[in-house]
Every structure is written in C-alpha cells, then in structure tokens.
Specification:
It comes from Metabacillus malikii. With 184 residues, the protein is mostly helical. The chain contains ten helices and no strands. Helices cover 70% and strands 0% of the residues. It is elongated, with a radius of gyration of 19 Å. The protein starts with a helix and ends in a 6-residue tail after the last helix.
Amino acid sequence: MKARIINESIFLIQKKGFTFTTSELATNLGVSKRKIYEYFSSKEQIIEVIINQLIMEIKEKEKDIAQNENLHLIEKVRQILCCTPEQFEVMDMRLLSELKKHYYKQWETLDYFLKKEWSVVMQLMEQGIDDGLIRPINLQVFIDLYLGAINQIYEPITSQSRQTFREKLHAIMDILLNGITCRQ
C-alpha cells in the first residue's frame, strides 16, 4: 500500500503539481484519508519519501553509468549530469518552484543533493583530464556553471520555454561539454 500511495502521489504531482490534496490522493486510490495516514503522518512525509526516492534513483543511475564500460568517459559525464528518474523526465520547472514554495524542507534536501553530491562526476572529469579527453579546467568553476544553469531553470519566471527539465539539462550539457564555437 505504501508503494501505491507513493506512485499515485507522483502521478498527481505530474498532473496537478504539489498542490494536490490528500483527499484527491485517497479518491484516486479508492481508500479513505485515514488509510493513507496509517502509512504516512502527513502529505509532507509523502513528499519527503518521494524526494528521497528520487535522490536514491539518481545515485543508482550515476553508479550504473559510471561503471558502464561500454560508454566513453565524456558520455558518462553527460549522462550523469542529465540523469533524471523516469517518472520525473517530463517534470517542468513549475514543479521545482512549487516544491520550494510549499515544501521548503524537502526542496532543501533535493537542493543540497544537487549542490554537494559531486564525487562521481569529479572522479570522471579528473580521469578525463588525466587521459587528455578533457582540457585542464577548474572543475569547481564547471560545477558552479552547471549549478548556475540549474538554478536558472528552477525559476519558471526566468524562462518562457516549454521544454521539460530533462530537455533543458541536455541543452545545458551540450553547451558545457561542446562549447558554442564551431569546430574547424
């Protein structure tokens, strides 16, 4: 039942954003609100579980990508930095700003992960520099550029684009890894 509650909550987030109600969740599940509260003390706890699940899925994907011997090192970096779990691939920026506005504690958890969990990427990029695949750059500045771009797409007001979060991540990585100049 716990998994059903989480999965239906993710569906409602995709459909209505974080403003869905526990009553709507109960109706969609065909159960009473009381039944939901047997498993979760609040909607905030449901959101917290979803965010923690999201982070764990990203970490698992990062690990799988990093260990995939069939991928070129640069492709590993690209895939890791564009990594989003399947159910969040269609997420738009409105949802991130809603999360920040209505569930700040849970947003902080996600934000901390995005800003501080860089060990896998750093290792890959350092290896790329050592192997001559990436020119020697200040990796912290690269990360700051990436995070700056992510922070920009968090705020829906700054962008009128209809691209999904995932599509924007891919565009950011294309520019960060390939630059803006034409190769001769």
